[in-house]
């Protein structure tokens, strides 16, 4: 673990700016001094946090793990001091978030409501669409995605992992044959995505289970959840959505356990936009906390 918050603060600045010079300007520190501090932190942790190249500082896997924890600590500190923050720390203006409808329906409403309460001068817009957003055309200021894009001038930050299981309504399970193995699923009605409208390979859950036919389908994960709740069949449900679907429970929980991740995508040109960066930090930390809270209740 890092020795103190100051170490984590410097680490976060370098990770976000991806350079010593950029982080040094933000922190008002000499890049050489900052480089020594980073090296000292790596020595203390006995891991390499960055891959250094002429293009800048890129996070290693260990660095990415530390960034998740450091951002969570940063968010906790921000929330602890929110009541005494100076008015100048308040965000204002409009920020638009693009998001797939799972996060838009089950996570962003409560997360953005809390952020909005802390920043009353801020207008938050949530665009819920089951597709990949084009930030180059400025469809949104930032977007949540289920896979990390590898093209375009984008900043990509992993927010958190999340989990999914097969699920069905108690009413459905009471009226149909028991489901004891994956092979038993072939005798049941399946709820899922419309196959030719799956916009990301990470969402093609049923193909991995060998289930080619989807009896009741929607391009919306929220609609799928409500179909399942109404006794329509068996389908894959986010663990964080289960608390919103009373009467629905996991099926084959030990045999079928899926893990995916949310990523926050921003345009590279916004790297030095302090306002968007502050909002992105608030959003990421709050989403991590909300996923953990809801999954613990599932």
From TrEMBL:
Q: Which intervals hold domain HTH lysR-type?
A: 3-60
**Signal peptide boundaries:** none
Alphabetic keyword roster: DNA-binding, Transcription, Transcription regulation
Q: Which InterPro entries match?
A: LysR-type_TF_proteobact-type, LysR_HTH_N, LysR_subst-bd, WH-like_DNA-bd_sf, WH_DNA-bd_sf
Answer yes or no on keyword Protein biosynthesis: no
Supply the SUPFAM superfamilies for this chain: Periplasmic binding protein-like II, Winged helix' DNA-binding domain
Q: Which Pfam families match?
A: HTH_1 (PF00126), LysR_substrate (PF03466)
Q: Does the keyword Iron apply?
A: no
| Membership in a protein family | Belongs to the LysR transcriptional regulatory family.
The molecule here is called LysR family transcriptional regulator
Provenance organism: Sulfitobacter sediminis
């Amino acid at each position: 673990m890092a020795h103190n918050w100051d170490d984590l603060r410097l680490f976060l600045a370098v990770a976000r700016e991806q350079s010593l010079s950029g982080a040094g300007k933000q922190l008002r520190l000499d890049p050489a001094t900052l480089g020594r501090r980073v090296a000292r932190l790596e020595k203390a942790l006995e891991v390499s946090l960055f891959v250094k190249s002429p293009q800048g500082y890129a996070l290693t896997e260990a660095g990415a793990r530390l960034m998740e924890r450091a951002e969570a600590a940063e968010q906790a500190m921000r929330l602890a001091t929110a009541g005494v923050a100076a008015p100048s720390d308040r965000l204002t203006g409009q920020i638009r978030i693009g998001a797939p409808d799972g996060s838009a329906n089950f996570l962003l409403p409560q997360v953005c409501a809390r952020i909005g309460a802390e920043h009353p001068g801020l207008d938050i817009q949530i665009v819920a669409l089951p597709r990949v957003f084009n930030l180059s055309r400025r469809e949104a200021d930032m977007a949540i995605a289920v896979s990390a894009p590898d093209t375009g001038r984008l900043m990509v930050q992993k927010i958190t992992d999340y989990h999914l299981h097969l699920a069905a309504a108690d009413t459905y399970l009471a009226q149909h044959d028991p489901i004891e193995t994956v092979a038993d699923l072939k005798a049941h009605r399946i709820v899922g995505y419309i196959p030719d409208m799956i916009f990301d390979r990470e969402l093609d859950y049923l193909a991995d289970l060998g289930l080619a036919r989807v009896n009741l389908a929607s391009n919306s994960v929220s609609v799928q959840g409500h179909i399942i709740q109404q006794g329509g069949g068996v389908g894959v449900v986010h663990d964080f959505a289960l608390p919103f679907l009373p009467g629905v429970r996991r099926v084959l929980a030990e045999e079928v356990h899926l893990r995916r991740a949310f990523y926050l995508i921003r345009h590279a040109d916004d790297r030095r936009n302090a306002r968007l960066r502050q909002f992105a930090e608030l959003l990421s930390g709050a989403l991590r906390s909300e996923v953990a809270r809801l999954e613990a209740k599932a």
